[in-house]
User: Fold these one by one.
Assistant:
Number 1:
Amino acid sequence: MATWIRNGRLADTITGVFEEKDLIIEGKRIEKIIPRGQFSEGGESLDIIEADGMLVLPGLIDMHVHLREPGEEYKETIQTGCLAAVAGGFTAVACMPNTIPPNDCRSVTEFILEQAMRAGLARVYPIAAITMGRKGTVMAEFGDLKAAGAVGLSDDGSPVADSGIMRCALEYSRYYDLKVISHCEDLRLSEGGVMHEGEISTRIGLPGIPSAAEEVMVHRDICLSELTGCPVHIAHVSSAGSVELIRRAKDKGLPVTAETTPHYLTLDHSSVIGYDTSAKVNPPLRTREDVEAVRKGLAEGVIDVIVTDHAPHSSLEKELEFDKAASGMIGLQSALPLVLSLVDEGCLSLSRAVQKMTIAPARVLGVEGGHLREGSPADVTIVDTDARYVFSRDMILSKSRNTPFLGREMKGIAHLTMIGGRVVWQRKASHPGS
Ligand code: DOR
Ligand code: ZN
């Protein structure tokens, strides 16, 4: 039976225009896109999805999440992570390889894909490790990993400290058409630090991580991209200096792309004043000036993609003294409303925001999706931009609850998420904002 999504405002992520158009979905694909009011039902029976007053977007794509499986299933599983993803409006997630064991070989990549298939929720794209064990010394088998289904390479959680290895990785990755996603951190500069190094770290007596720990490596990777002519994608940009370096690299025409997260766009280091470990992330939340610079970089196209860096941790790793707690926060269910609030504040246009969560990540990773087109898979997210609610613990579908956004007033929510023509998430009448 065909499905008719009607009366919504459809986002064309190529032109950046919203149009009053309906979608007809037949099986797994978009059969037709037609102007509102021009479709007549005929004799056939149809499933009707009413999107009146809502946005109809290509399924959101998050190219940076941690699903913790294999190895740390008490924090998250592929199933729970995917459930949080679809509830947050994401139809696809790319998962980082810092699992136990790390995704540095074919069997782990295949296991992740099998578990994703079993979960039957979001599409899962494995990112494989650049180096064996993510130890930074011996390169992984890129060809094997690609054949098994990996779509990118990263040692995320750790940098590739050895510049010679990074150079080789960039050169080999191009051969296999796998994007290298770089976690930029100079470990000698960040050593011992637990928050941003600045006025607040001095005041509350916590050891700091200077912005330079990130920027030195952003600069190195840009130099290596220039040396090799190979693309590099900079993960979780948090500082004004990094934005400036990437801006200059792009001005030179280098194949550098970058991402940031809703938390670097929203929070600064003052969130740490109460020693709230849910605000402990790596790289750390920085100053208000950094937040403003990252916002500007996003609006001006220096930063291409918005990701969550969804990093679940249990209370065992978080309910500790600040310096002993793990870094990371969950983000799959708070990303969309936080980005919509940036739009409301005038930081960037709605169409730009949508592009950075759809077509931009699809292009960086070279995967399908990100655009609603006749004949393409019916991955669709319907967003109710007017829904107002307080982000609360009982909404969280992730196994972990480590987020500093609990209790925050939110506006906008995923109303319905469809993957390959199948509705995998629908907001219930009892849900907040309904
Ligand atoms: O805060 C972080 N958490 N930063 C990382 O780079 C890794 C991540 C994790 O895996 O928990
Ligand atoms: Zn990460």
Number 2:
Amino acid sequence: MDLFCHKLPKIELHAHLNGSLSKLTLKQLGCLENSISQYQSVKAIGLKDAFALFKVAHEATSNTKNLYIATQNVIEEFAKDNVVYLELRTTPRSEEGMSEDDYIETVIKAIRENRFDGILVKLILSLDRRRSREEQTETLDRIIRFKNSFPDLIRGVDLSGDPAKGDFFRDIFEKARENGLKTAIHCAEIQNDAEVKNILEFKPDRLGHGTFIHTNPELWALYKQLNIPVECCLTSNVICLTANSYAEHHVQEWIKEKLPFCLATDDKGVFNTSLSEEFLHIHKASKLNELELWTISYKSIEYSFASAEEKNFLRFSLEKWKIKNIKDNE
Ligand code: IMP
Ligand code: ZN
């Protein structure tokens, strides 16, 4: 099954650029061994400690040269894992000698100059919930400006950052939607019923995590009525201790109730995982067979922010792969 999960053409819809940097990339970018070794020791940490680890990657990508290399390396690694469609997300930030515009331009350049065949890459830009309403609005205006120049590449806006801090500002996301951007919002990573209700009522195109929705009957009923696809990041949740184990992960509720979800890595560098491994985990935890695993990948195409044409192309290639690789009688 390891080989099957590796070879399966996969759709990655929830990957944070800086959280996805591999140890090799960190090394290449001049990161010190003792910083990198913090990654190696990650087995079980709280969300708070996970956030401290992003500093390591942020230091490594604090100039455009390194950011460019980091972006290309992440794309290469996903391509080697047979990810055929990648929605990479990142938070525009400024550093000494690099403005937010420089940051976005560099990531766009690295994606456009991608040298790897067989992977289609789109960009989602993130708003950091720790930032103020004014700062988030300013970043959104910047994102809209870039989206108008690169509509094929920039497809959506994400809300992420420490879930224990900051706010979801609905009007900011209304504005994103009015300007033709899709919305993917981190939601219910920790218990926060009032905010979850606000987010659900906004009806984003996708939700990240959705860990504490089914635990509240009122929210669960509302969610099921809305039927919004959830990006499930199993290893991330197990390591951050918001899921007890793979077998007890909330994705089981989605499987049981036939609700829409995709599998995702979240931060493959920090959590030392790959999308193939996420498929393997769900295979083991839920006893899913090859056809069921393929179906998760296939359905994810629908939840992606790809164009209708791109979705058709992806469906066609997955169907072709299925005929060649999965026996009918499964
Ligand atoms: P970046 O946006 O490319 O810099 O990727 C790292 C950033 O993604 C972090 O600083 C967080 O803001 C965000 N992030 C990564 N993983 C998570 C998560 O599990 N929950 C919320 N935010 C996250
Ligand atoms: Zn995330």
